[in-house]
């Protein structure tokens, strides 16, 4: 399906257009930034959604879903900060707008473990250095996660980028009056450049988060299949789904 990609600079039709929307340091250092652009700027008269992404959405039989504008490196206000989503997409179903946020993943991890981030924040506080980290994590955890119970991973073990990414998805959904939000991890894999052990760690981190946010209903995130809708505490009127799509770049 042809799509429209836009940044603050205008229409995005080439890799150079996409690169202009992303900070130069990020474009250079994150392997996923360029790989994501190449996946979404498919050869042809117009950009089109990647096959694996379309298949993921089709897995849930989203009736009449069409993609609107795709925004690379989209700024989304979350709590007291701004989170830049790799992609923010306004889609449309027969009923209402649908918000989609895409997190690109190549050989990176999902940020710091929240336990480590909170320890670092405590050290800052101990040095009389102000930090919003502790309050931010508490606010987002209360809004996004069910209360801890036996069998669920603790907040300490979850990754910062996953909590922020899903929080950004819900904030984006609220901003466009969507009743459904979808958070997608788009894996962009060079089998000859990334270690299986690194990919396994990323899968384990993602599965831990999915187990917690789904209150144990989902043990892991299956590739190509959206989770059943989840209701998070802070957004009772918006159904959240999570999904994972993969593109092997060596083929």
Give the topology.
Blueprint: E1 4-7, E2 10-11, H1 15-21, H2 24-29, H3 31-40, H4 51-58, E3 66-78, E4 81-92, E5 97-105, H5 114-126, H6 133-144, H7 160-175, E6 180-189, H8 196-213, E7 239-248
Parallel strand pairs: 1-3, 5-6, 6-7
Antiparallel strand pairs: 1-2, 3-4, 4-5
Helix pairs in contact: 6-7
Q: What attributes does this structure have?
A:
251 residues, alpha/beta, 7-stranded mixed β-sheet, 8 helices, 7 strands, 36% helix, 24% strand, globular
The global form is: globular
Percent range for β-strand residues: 15-25%
Q: How many distinct domains?
A: 1
Query: N-to-C SSE series?
Result: EEHHHHEEEHHHEHE
Low-confidence residue ranges: none
CA(first)-CA(last) distance: 22 Å
Rg over CA atoms? 18 Å
Structural class: alpha/beta
User: Helical residue percent?
Assistant: 25-40%
Largest sheet: 7 strands, mixed
Q: What's the quaternary structure here? A: single chain
**Order of strands side by side in the largest beta sheet?**
2-1-3-4-5-6-7
Output mean pLDDT: 91
């Amino acid at each position: 399906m042809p799509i429209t990609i836009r940044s603050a600079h205008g229409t995005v039709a080439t890799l150079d257009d996409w690169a202009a929307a992303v900070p130069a340091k990020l474009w250079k250092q994150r392997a996923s930034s360029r790989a994501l652009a190449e996946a979404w700027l498919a050869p042809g008269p117009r950009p089109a959604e990647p096959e694996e992404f379309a298949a993921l959405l089709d897995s849930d039989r989203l009736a009449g879903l069409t993609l609107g504008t795709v925004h690379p490196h989209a700024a989304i206000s979350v709590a007291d900060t701004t989170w830049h989503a790799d992609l923010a997409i306004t889609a449309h179903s027969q009923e209402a707008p649908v918000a989609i946020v895409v997190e690109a993943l190549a050989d990176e991890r999902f940020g710091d473990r929240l336990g480590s981030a909170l320890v670092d924040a405590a050290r800052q506080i101990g040095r009389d250095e102000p930090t919003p980290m502790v309050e931010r994590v508490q606010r987002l955890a209360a809004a996004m996660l069910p209360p801890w119970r036996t069998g669920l991973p603790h907040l300490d073990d979850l990754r910062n980028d996953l909590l922020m990414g899903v929080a950004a998805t819900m904030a984006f959904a609220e901003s466009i009056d969507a009743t459904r939000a979808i958070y997608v991890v788009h894996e962009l894999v060079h089998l000859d450049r990334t270690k299986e052990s690194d990919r396994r760690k990323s899968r384990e981190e993602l599965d831990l988060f999915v187990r917690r946010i789904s209150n144990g209903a989902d043990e892991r995130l299956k590739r190509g299949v959206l989770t059943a809708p989840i209701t998070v505490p802070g957004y009772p009127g918006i159904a959240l789904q999570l999904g994972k799509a993969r593109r092997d770049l060596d083929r």
